[in-house]
Design brief:
The protein has about 300 residues and is an alpha+beta fold. The protein has 5 helices and 10 strands, in the order αααββββαββαββββ. The protein starts with a helix and ends in an 11-residue tail after the last strand. The relative contact order is 0.18.
Length: about 300
Amino acid sequence: MESFGNKLLRRATLLAIAGSIAINMAGCGKQVDDVPENTEPVQTAPHVQTLAPETTTEATTAVTEPPPPVEPDPLEKYAEYYEQNSDFIGWIRIDGITHSNGDPWIDYPVVQTTDNDYYLDKNFEKKKSAKGTIYADYKVPITGLSMADNVTLYGHSNKDGSFFRHLLDYQTSDTSTVNDAYIINFDTRWEEAQYVIVSCFLVGIREDQDDIPLFEYFKCRNFKTEEDYNYFYDNIMLRNYYISPVECRYGDQFLTLSTCAYTISDSRFVVVARKVREGEDPSVYAGQYERNREKHMPLRAR
């Protein structure tokens, strides 16, 4: 594992990555297709046999295909939410950002449907609501057997503090929020899981808002190659508000939370967390987050 000292050195050199990103737009920006792949079977010409097959007395061994994986049973504690709305796919909770009574601000069901527009103005009961609902990007369905390498959840930044408004607390100039709330709980209908924050950043959604190529983090879903993963990781670390000893590698699973920001117009504030690995104790990262004074910011936010 890379030492914390080396990680600090790595972060200090991240601004140099911006130049290489402009030259080498590898990974999600170029290679991750935003259109569903063609799954139609390839038609081939039939094989015409012109010679009689040779006979043999040797026994042949039949190849037995392994049985298909069986989807696990859904968690009983979420059954009532699925009964209310069949688009329900999970629950998100961040315990470290709380109301005055100690209840978490972010503690909501998550839905997923066939587009990213439906729940912009509908609540969990599918009734009209400007507050919307927290929903998962639709391109890669979440099931009991699979999900995207990087699942993106969207939520409005409502003025009353609901949904993802308090993600903006991670923008503070000190590190108190991230050190109190560095663990994100995201359960699917089939699995309970924790994620540890690796990056928080501000990003514009227009090309003219920056002097390096636009980073379309929301298209970074599956990392088909290590190059795809490096593009995603280098970009989130280049912009990261914080430095921490949380280590990531190709093959990890990620959770990305996205909401509107108001530092500049047409911007988003994004929080990226890595799924806690089997046997890993996330408490070792408590109090380990420090400010990154060399983070890359959009032009008008500098």
